[in-house]
From TrEMBL:
Protein name per Swiss-Prot or TrEMBL: Glycosyl hydrolase family protein
Top-rank taxon, per record: Bacteria
Gene3D superfamilies attached to this UniProt entry: Glycosidases (3.20.20.80)
InterPro entries: GH
Length: 445
């Protein structure tokens, strides 16, 4: 079947390590998902949502090279499928298993590609993936800010984490496509902007505004400018590594996921300090900048706001983000979906998971007792109101998706390929007759 607009939410599954790698912050555990996973999926259905950003906890699932514990993934993905929910599978969310160490490990990309392939073989009905979540944020928090995992604080550790994360994402896409040729990749990435606070800060702000694109530049094979090339090579990236990314030909399988929070815009000072600026440009303007650069279909893949003292702050933010999505759509950018992240409240996001305080942050559509919040009620209404309107007004893309409820799983890879041939979807996700570089609509869409 085809799908028009994707309304989504997600189960928060971050699992970075802190305290020198000795302590793991597991949001699925903190938020009670290991206990309440059936209820969580029921909550998704109660909202009228068909798409769920979700992935197995990598540190509990991937025990070593070729060694897995699939028990929890088997249970949860079977239930997701039974309910007819379409997962957008998040395979690496800010952390790696203890046996890999951290993102400075150069063996990680190739090992992760095998993990991605083996997941796809076990769950061949899954079509949508975010192999590595928010690569820029993960590289920044792990390799530059000194907060997570390797807790690096230099340009060298930042670039090392960045190139390993993106290479892992590219290799994982390639591996998944050997199993599921019509897979689509929704690359959830933080959309950022850095504002200069004074003329003396302009040069530094411009540098950060180039660096914000690095993960997607490499992921989509987009040539960086000379300043960024020097920055990468001065900090450990080789010519061969850079050309590996340029030779990437996977754009035709990709949707650019852009995440936007109140903290995504920054104020840069002449002395090098960077602070939060709050919302200045907003989601629509920053998304336009990213779309102008990559010319790919877009999905708003994360947003939320603290519920606040009146209970209406999050509701107002939901309305504002939705207005921005409509603005993006109305200026001609193909935007395919919207996500409130996450389904339930989160824990310790007020310290970006740098501390294990047990603070519950009221950011979800439901609280941790699985009672719906006011923003959840409003999101349910928004979905009901707009689901019938958007397809009727659509001027852009629809996705050729095999929704979980549509048919029995393929018996094996050969059976799956036969089904693709029958449906004429071998080229699903190919963005126009121009191939990798064309921004046109996918063949048959």
């Amino acid at each position: 079947m085809t799908s028009g607009f994707m309304f989504a939410t997600g189960i928060e599954n971050s699992y970075p390590t802190i305290k020198g790698g000795t302590h793991r912050v597991d949001e699925m555990e903190k938020c009670g998902h290991y206990t309440h996973w059936k209820r969580d999926f029921e909550c998704v259905q109660e909202l009228g949502i068909d798409f769920l950003r979700y992935g197995p906890p990598i540190h509990r699932t991937w025990l070593g090279p070729g060694r897995y514990d699939w028990e929890f993934a088997d249970l949860t993905f079977a239930e997701i499928r039974r309910l007819g929910i379409m997962p957008i599978v998040d395979l690496c969310h800010f952390g790696v298993p203890d046996w890999i160490g951290n993102f400075q490990n150069g063996d990680f990309p190739a090992l992760f590609a095998t993990y991605a392939r083996d997941f796809a073989l076990r769950f061949p009905w899954v079509q949508l993936y975010t192999p590595v979540n928010e690569m820029f944020i993960c590289a920044t928090f792990s390799g530059r800010n000194g907060w997570w995992n390797e807790q690096g604080t230099t340009d060298l550790t930042f670039v090392t984490a960045l190139k390993h994360l993106v290479r892992a994402n590219v290799l994982a896409m390639q591996a998944i496509l050997t199993v599921r040729p019509d897979a689509l990749f929704i690359q959830s990435e933080s959309s950022e902007y850095f504002h200069a606070s004074s003329p003396a800060a302009i040069r530094l702000a411009e540098t950060y505004n180039q660096q914000r694109f690095l993960t997607l530049d490499l992921n989509y094979g987009h040539r960086v400018n000379s300043d960024m090339y020097e920055f990468l090579t001065d900090n450990g990236m080789t010519r061969d590594e850079y050309h590996f990314f340029l030779e990437n030909r996977l754009r035709r399988h990709c949707i650019m996921g852009t995440d936007y929070y109140f903290t995504n815009e920054h104020r840069v000072y002449a002395d090098g300090r960077v602070t939060a600026s709050g919302e200045v440009f907003g989601y629509d303007e920053i998304t336009r900048q990213y779309h102008d650069r990559y010319q790919l279909p877009v999905m708003h893949t994360e947003t939320n706001l603290w519920e606040g003292s009146t209970g209406e702050e999050a509701v107002d933010w939901l309305w504002k983000q939705w207005a921005n999505v409509l603005r993006v759509r109305n200026i001609g950018i193909p935007i395919l979906g919207f996500t409130w992240y996450s389904l339930t409240d989160q824990v310790d996001w007020d310290t970006a998971l740098r501390e294990d305080n047990g603070n519950v942050n009221p950011l979800g559509l439901f609280d941790l007792d699985r009672n719906i919040r006011r923003v959840g009620e409003c999101y349910r209404t928004l979905i009901a109101d707009w689901s019938s309107v958007l397809p009727a007004q659509s001027h852009c893309l629809v996705l050729p998706l095999d929704m979980p409820r549509d048919e029995a799983p393929p018996r094996d890879k050969a059976d799956h390929l036969r089904r693709l041939a029958v449906r004429g979807l071998r080229r699903a996700g190919s963005f126009g007759p121009g191939g990798d570089r064309s921004p046109g609509p996918p063949g048959g869409w």
